Amino acid sequence: MCLGIPGQIVEIVDPEKxxxxxxxxxxxxxxxxxxxxxxxxxxxxxxxxWVLVHVGFAMTRIEEEEAKKTLALLQELGExxxxxxxxxxxxx
Amino acid sequence: MKYVDEFRDPNLAKSLVREINELVEVIEFSKQRxxxxxxxxxxxxxxxxxxxxxxxxxxxxxxxxxxxxxxCVLPMGRVDDCVSLAQRSEVILTTFGDAMRVPGSKMxxxxxxxxxxxxxxxxxxxxxxxxxxxxxxxxxxxxxxxFETTMPSTALTVLQAxxxxxxxxxxxxxxxxxxxxxxxxxxxxxxxxxGFVAPGHVSMVVGEKPFNFVAEKYKKPIVITGFEPLDIxxxxxxxxxxxxxxxxxxxxxxxxxxxSRGNRQALAAMERVFELREFFEWRGLGSIDNSGIxxxxxxxxxxxxxxxAVPNIKITDPKxxxxxxxxxxxxxxxxxxxxxxxxTPETPMGALMVSSEGACAAYxxxxxxxDLLALKLARENQEALx
Lengths: 92, 386
Prior knowledge:
The complex is a heterodimer.
Chain A: E1 5-14, E2 19-24, E3 27-32, E4 50-54, E5 57-61, H1 64-77, H2 79-89
Antiparallel strand pairs in A: 1-2, 1-4, 2-3, 4-5
Chain B: H1 10-25, E1 35-41, H2 42-50, H3 53-56, E2 61-68, H4 76-86, E3 91-95, H5 109-114, E4 119-121, H6 125-134, E5 139-146, H7 151-163, E6 169-175, H8 178-187, E7 195-198, H9 200-206, H10 212-216, E8 222-224, H11 229-244, E9 250-252, H12 264-273, E10 274-282, E11 286-295, H13 304-307, H14 323-327, H15 359-366, H16 369-384
Parallel strand pairs in B: 1-2, 1-7, 3-4, 3-5, 5-6, 7-8, 8-9
Antiparallel strand pairs in B: 10-11
């Protein structure tokens, strides 16, 4: 819940509702990107960006390098697996 | 240096440890009493235990594990209220997995589910919203938990529910806010904390400014910190450096994620939907002024507490439970009378044993086996005495 998990935005699903698909360790999940969108960063500019995802919301942009390091740490802590399981169990 | 090779950059870790050792030499008071640093966030506590960070530090530095695990500090009465909501036949109660096992005075949500209540684990409040769309004849309640890290997600979900015109979605709001609890810890008499490792992802939302009071009013150093073991080690170095140089400032070690002004969009959503509660009860700590969050009147129709009557009964913590003393740093987890006896991660009695991010559970899971066996033996010997 508090650590979040990094992923890459691979598709804009609904620009009106700020919804996008994020790829995280091989799975895809719809997330809300309101918190990283403003007039300098419109929805469509987010495609391809790496973000930190907390409970289905992209909370901040991060560097690709940072994203990979964070994912490695989460895997060591056993948190990545937990997060991905809870994500996939509720995807429809 | 048992674990240092597991660090991503063992050489940097070693040089930080060396510098910390040199710095504490010039801190005079550390010869009389330990330098006490508190990490607030449960995520930090978890990393500290997992990587054995305390064992790398000089003996005169003591890490005090704070109350920043939202699942842990949820009082039993609120769990009871949530169970009573879940037991209504029209309700689908949705929750993060972490909250399923938290004990109420009679049962947890997991037990309520086994008894027939419609309790569903979700990854995101957005999943709860989707369930509300799919089940228009049911009321979908989301059990909202957490500090400022998760608050924007629930606020934005309420705003989306409003935009979608939904009338069968509501929150059982148990969000809590970081600053009042830090202030309450600083105001506790007999507290000797010398510095704070501040939560990284709360800061990502709120920015640096809300922590200024720690440095300005209380003259204590505070460092916003990331979750890598190296991040934590570097923050401890920054804190010790401030103490040695007699400075008290807010520093941001986690600038690669935390912008000094926080996240504007997240703060705006929170501001629209939420306001402070005058009082909120914390498990192990009692009532703390202005520390809880509720839904504003404008969004009352999304507030489960106003839509349904909840019993709202206060349940006092078990007397033998010493979570409050552990949280204040007065005792270590294993010094609590019920630690690893009546209170274990399987049957938690106190807040800090509930989630893997709680200090007692972290110590129980990552503390060395000889330590735990010695403790058990000492207890048995004590009980055998006449």
